[in-house]
Amino acid sequence: MIAAVRTALALAIVVAGIAYSSWLLEYVLHTGLDPTTSFLSELDAVGQRYRDVFSIADTVSGSLLAASAVAALFVLPRKKLATVGWVALFVFGVATIADANLPITCVPSALHPCPSEPSGLFPQLHHIHALTSTVAVNAIFIAMIAFTWAEFRYGGWHALRATGLVLLICASTTTAWLLIADNLPGDYALGVAQRVQVGGFSLWLVTLGVAVWRSPTLRHHERSD
């Protein structure tokens, strides 16, 4: 029974990770946005042709992760670091749902600036979407750090030891790229940086799902705090 629940939990996390990478569809849907300079928030901005595609995918991802985190707290051992990770993942899921349903209301351009919101490379920073996005990013970083630390301390989450750590470093590097370059003149391909960052988050979620699935004796591997 426990194995079946764990498998279902792992599958939900993997599907959530895949759904979170729905932005890849922009390369086949012809959204009209330049991936080099545009931000993913613009894909599901109000009025965008394929807004529903990206919004629904993020809502599904967030819902699966929030539900998975709650389930994990009941069916998996409540070790301190793992608990921090699941709570952070729950927050990430809820923030992602909010992200998808509280979109920016305008995509600015040189010819059509937004009348009610400042234009620029970061239009979402002037919208409540900024809050949900910030909460989501901070939450998943906390989850990544907590679960990686849990693997090194307790063991049992083998996929997170190497692959998960590499993805954490990759996401951290691109986040630094975004934060530093945003304060410098020029665009520095920030759209690319964000896509690499979010791609790292998606791959890490899939890795977490694999780690859960491949840990059938997790209860026996974890040591007491």
From TrEMBL:
InterPro entries: DUF998. The keyword Transport does not apply. Keywords: Membrane, Transmembrane, Transmembrane helix. The chain crosses the membrane at residues 7-25, 53-76, 83-104, 124-147, 159-180, 192-213. This is DUF998 domain-containing protein. It comes from Antrihabitans stalactiti.
